[in-house]
Amino acid sequence: MLRPEVCPEFFQPTCGCDNLVHSNECDTYGAGVDVNHLGTCKLASPGVFACGAGFCETKSQYCVNTASDVAGVDDSFGCNPLPPSCGPEPSCGCIKNACAGTCKGVAATGLTVACPGG
Prior knowledge:
Layout: E1 14-15, E2 21-22, H1 25-30, E3 48-51, E4 54-57, E5 61-66, E6 76-81, E7 102-106, E8 110-115
Parallel strand pairs: 5-8
Antiparallel strand pairs: 1-2, 3-4, 5-6, 7-8
């Protein structure tokens, strides 16, 4: 882990291996801890859910977890916008994802699609 001297001033809540939410990935490393991709931190604010080390917005996004099939390389995580067809109570049925992954979750706690590596 390389500790940065100066971090950019943008807010992108990131979970650290100290189980604390830091203001961004750079600040996490600056605190002397690695990024925690397990999503075990307490939520950064209401209306969000864990997506790897980051957080997605429950009402407008879903999490995509793409598995790594390379030794030593972490899975990747990202927030994608929910399709307009999902409406106010999104479910896995409204997400048509190109990775053909499996979806889990409910509208209240967030939806996550797990994609195989490749």
